[in-house]
Amino acid sequence: MVTEFAEIGLRIKGLREACDVTVEDMARELEVPVGTYEEWEATGADVPISAIYHMAHHFGVEFTEILTGTAAKLQTYQVVKNGEGREVDRYPGYHFEDLAWRYTGKIMQPLLVVLDPSDEPAKLVTHTGQEFNLVIEGTVIVTWEDKEFELNAGDSIYFNPEHPHGQRCGGDVPAKFVTIIAE
Question: What is the pLDDT of residues 35-59, one digit of tens each?
Fold first, then answer.
């Protein structure tokens, strides 16, 4: 039985091979060790959202297509009711919902993120483009390089994601925020 994560790995590998890109070239472009990239293709586990978004852009497919295997089709509008986003679970302690999973040709990727309480530092990532976070519930600690910002409901941050950054829950109850990534 192939798991949902393994299917993501197979889709990434299939796209890379179809576009005649070597494992080494893709790893270099994503700025990860070759072994890490090979593990992503083999298992589909622990692939950062930013890497999936970057690969989707590189291979000319929708972010959603890599995650689900189904291409987005809407070009006019998409209404997503509360709780009806497409689930994208990538890391323990993080829960993502794609808020535009049926819309094709997106120039930005909106995600609803729920963070479980944790004392662990935020996992830092980098990617191109711009990013916006708006806290809806709880407290989110945003790490940007060596700075930490405590954001509460209604607070937001807009930043250059080419600098190491990450988010973690800053309280003892889950925190919820919307992130919009434009690459």
Answer: 999 999 998 888 888 888 889 888 8
Are 101 and 64 a contacting pair, CB within 8 Å?
A: yes
Distance, CA of 157 to CA of 144 (rounded, Å):
10
**pLDDT tens, 93-102?**
778 888 988 8
- Half-sphere exposure of residue 104, counting CA atoms within 13 Å on the CB side? 9
Q: What is the largest CA-CA distance in the chain?
A: 47
Amino acid type, 74: L
In this structure, what is the dihedral angle of CA atoms 122, 126, 127, 131, given to the nearest 10 degrees?
50
- DSSP of the chain: ---HHHHHHHHHHHHHHHTT--HHHHHHHHTS-HHHHHHHHHH-TT--HHHHHHHHHHHT--HHHHHHS----BSS-----TT-SEEE--STTEEEEETTTTBSS-SSEEEEEEE-B-SSPPPPB--SSEEEEEEEESEEEEEETTEEEEEETT-EEEE-TTS-EEEEE-SSS-EEEEEEEE-
pTM exceeds 0.85: no
